[in-house]
Design a protein that fits this description.
431 residues; alpha+beta; Type 1 dockerin domain; Lipocalin; Muramoyl-pentapeptide Carboxypeptidase, domain 2; eight-stranded antiparallel β-barrel; seven-stranded mixed barrel; 22% helix
Length: 431
């Protein structure tokens, strides 16, 4: 008897999918709907038993009746027999293809089927994992759903998602900080996740399904789904609007440290909260930042203005000496408003530069106005804008720009936010 060989290209554990349960309730041993004789299969033998019951030739136990009532209308009749006929026919040689979501009462995951061999024993699949394999029994519910019992007794329902593999970039995988009518911190892995309610400090696990701009959340074993409409704002922000009228803005919040260097959503950060190691030294302004400045300088020249870099890369030791000189002159509290402590300066990244003159005399110049209006077109942001000292930790600096690349610089500038606000981070010395 030949068994189907299914090559599973992707089966990734994820979070909360709001998929209605299509499995029967079970205790120790899961059962497939329609399996009246309890042999773990739905086949012609079950159809014969149901036919005999309909014609009054046999009686069912409560357990058998529950299995025979396929359409859940509290009756075991010809409608259930027709449904069983479809299941039996569908199970004969039917092979899944494309992407499916498998879910049980706790979590969900994606499967991608990219073909397989024919079958004579249609209710038994063998999943090939490369070095290992696992056998499972299958019962089709309809053309876009089937139940599956794994060799360890776990039962899952698989529902059709689409022809192509999942685009994981389209999912909300990662950490997100929410703000708005409700305030939550989300931790999502694929379609499984949890959120921490910052007002009550309660954590809730969920599964979710994304369908276009619609999100459906389910917590635990409940079938009721909570619905939200998602509206992408930019690379790191999305707005969620729930059916009850509440709303949230979610900010991507992926913070990693690599060799002592902090990256927030892939962006190298140096501010009062996050410092660079003393050994970090790119040797000068990074080539991409220098090329962007050269392009910006040429554009300003066409408008009759002259831009130059008066202070670019600074090493850890250089910044240490500079900061200490300011402390000796103005005191520590005053120096902290306009100079970074060693390791906390953006100049050490090789991505920041001061233009023309590092002082308030630059503020009202034509060059300062042009820089504020056009620097994002060349991949820079005005790093310490006016009125944002409590957020950035530094006084207004019309001369200090930071390179982010053109797309991101445009998003930050258009948002009207500082980089700290845009990334939902702070800039405060912890010592």
């Amino acid at each position: 008897m030949k068994k189907a060989l299914i090559k599973r290209a992707a089966a990734v554990l994820a979070s909360a999918a709001l998929l209605p349960s299509a499995v029967t309730a079970y205790a120790d041993t899961p059962v497939l709907m329609g399996d009246i004789n309890g042999d773990g299969k739905v086949n012609i033998s079950d159809a014969v038993l149901l036919g005999a019951y309909i014609h009054g030739r046999t009686q069912f136990t409560p357990e058998q009746f529950a299995q025979a009532d396929i359409n859940n209308d509290d009756s075991a009749d010809s409608l259930d027999l027709a449904a069983m006929k479809f299941i039996v026919i569908a199970n004969l040689g039917r092979m899944p293809g494309g992407t499916w979501i498998a879910s049980d009462d706790a979590a969900a995951r994606y499967f991608y089927f990219n073909g397989g061999e024919g079958t004579e024993d249609g209710d038994c699949f063998t999943f090939d994992y490369g070095d290992t394999s696992e056998e499972a029994r299958v019962s089709w519910l309809n053309s876009k759903a089937f139940n599956i019992i794994w060799s360890d007794g776990r039962l899952e329902t698989m529902r059709y998602y689409g022809d192509k593999p999942i685009n994981y970039d389209d999912l909300l995988t990662g950490q997100w900080t929410g703000s708005g009518t409700v305030n939550r911190v989300y931790d999502i892995k694929g379609v499984n996740g949890s959120y921490l309610d910052t007002d009550t400090n309660r954590s809730t696990s969920f599964m979710y399904e994304k369908n276009g701009n619609d999100l459906y959340f389910r917590s635990g074993a409940e079938d009721d789904a909570t619905h939200a409409v998602i509206n992408p704002v930019d690379s790191f922000h999305i707005d969620l609007t729930w059916d009850d009228g509440t709303s949230e803005r979610l900010t991507k919040h992926d913070i990693k440290q690599i060799n002592g260097i902090t990256y927030v959503n892939g962006i190298l950060i140096a501010n009062k909260t996050y410092d660079l190691p003393s050994t970090y030294n790119p040797g000068g302004i990074l080539p991409e930042a220098q090329a962007a400045f050269n392009e910006m300088k040429a554009a300003a020249a066409r408008d009759g203005l002259n831009l130059w870099i008066c202070s670019g890369f600074r090493s850890y030791n250089y910044q240490r000496d500079l900061y200490n000189s300011y402390v000796n002159r103005d005191g520590k509290a005053k120096a902290d408003t306009y100079s970074a402590r060693p390791g906390h300066s953006e100049h050490q990244t090789g991505l920041a530069m001061d233009i023309n003159m590092a002082g308030d005399a630059f503020n009202n110049t034509r060059e300062a106005k042009w820089l504020a209006e056009h620097c994002d077109e060349y991949g820079f942001i005005l790093r310490y804008p006016q009125g944002k000292q409590d957020i950035t930790g530094y006084k207004y600096e019309s001369w200090h720009v930071r390179y982010l690349g053109k797309p991101l610089a445009a998003e930050v500038t258009d948002s009207g936010l500082t980089l700290e606000e845009f990334l939902c981070i702070d800039s405060v010395y912890k010592y």
